[in-house]
Amino acid sequence: MVRRAILSVLTVGLALGLANSAQASLKEFSTGTGSSQADLLFQFSDGAAYEFHVSYDSGISTGADLLDAVGNAFASSASGPVTVTLTHIIDPTYGYDLQQVTIVDNGVTHQDGIAGSSGGWDGSNYWAYWNRDTASSPWGYASTGASFRTIANGNGDAWYYSDGSTLPIPEPASLALLGLSGLVLVGRRSRRP
C-alpha cells in the first residue's frame, strides 16, 4: 500500500514535471489594443517558443495580417527585450510563404528557416502552419495559407519549424492524458503478484 502511494506520487510528479518542462520554454507577449484578440505562436527547432497575444478592433482579418502585426510591433529593440524579423514572400498560389524567423530575446538569437527557399525548407524541416479556433481547441494543420486564413476573435495561428508531423507545444489536455497513462501503468504494476 505504501509502495503504491509512493509510486502514484512519483508518477504525478513526473507528469507535472513534463508539463512544466514542455511549457518552460514558452514566452508570452502582448501587443495592440481592442476588444478582439488572436494569438500567434512561433516554435523553433531548439525548443524555444514565443506566443504573441494581439489585441485589435480592425486591421487584422487574415493570418498574414496577424504576422504583419507582430512583425511591425516587435521590429526593433525599442519595443522591448524581444525583436522579431520575418522573411517571407507572397506566393500567388499559397499566399504568405514564411521562409525565415529570427527572434532576438535579451541578446539570445533563435533563428530557423532559409531565406529564399519555400517555407524555409532546409531539406527536412520547414515553417509548418497550424491553426486553432480557441485557446482550448486542438491544433490542426492549416488547410490554407496565411493570406487566405480568416482570423476571428479567439483564433490562434502557429508556425512550427519541423517536418510538419508534430503538433506545436503540447496542449494541457495532452499533458493530462500523459499523467493519467502513468497512473494507469502504476496501478497495473502494483496489482501484479
What is the strand content?
25-35%
The helix content, as a percent range, equals 25-40%
Order of helices and strands: HEEEHEEEEEEH
Secondary-structure class? alpha+beta
- Helix tally equals 3
Alpha carbon gyration radius: 19 Å
Q: In total, how many beta strands?
A: 9
Describe this structure in words.
With 193 residues, the chain is of the alpha+beta class. The chain contains three helices and nine strands. The chain has helices spanning 2-24, 63-73, 172-191; strands at 26-32, 36-43, 49-56, 82-91, 95-105, 108-113, 126-132, 140-141, 156-162. Strands 1-3-2-9-7-8 form a six-stranded mixed sheet. A three-stranded antiparallel sheet has the order 4-5-6, with helices on one face. Helix 1 runs antiparallel to helix 3 (172-191). The radius of gyration is 19 Å and the shape is globular. The two termini are 13 Å apart.
In brief:
It contains three helices and nine strands; from the N terminus they run H-E-E-E-H-E-E-E-E-E-E-H.
Key attributes of the depicted protein:
193 residues; 3-stranded antiparallel β-sheet; 28% helix; alpha+beta; disordered N terminus; 6-stranded mixed β-sheet; single chain
Topology diagram in text:
Layout lengths: L1 H23 L1 E7 L3 E8 L5 E8 L6 H11 L8 E10 L3 E11 L2 E6 L12 E7 L7 E2 L14 E7 L9 H20 L2
Parallel strand pairs: 1-3, 2-9
Antiparallel strand pairs: 2-3, 4-5, 5-6, 7-8, 7-9
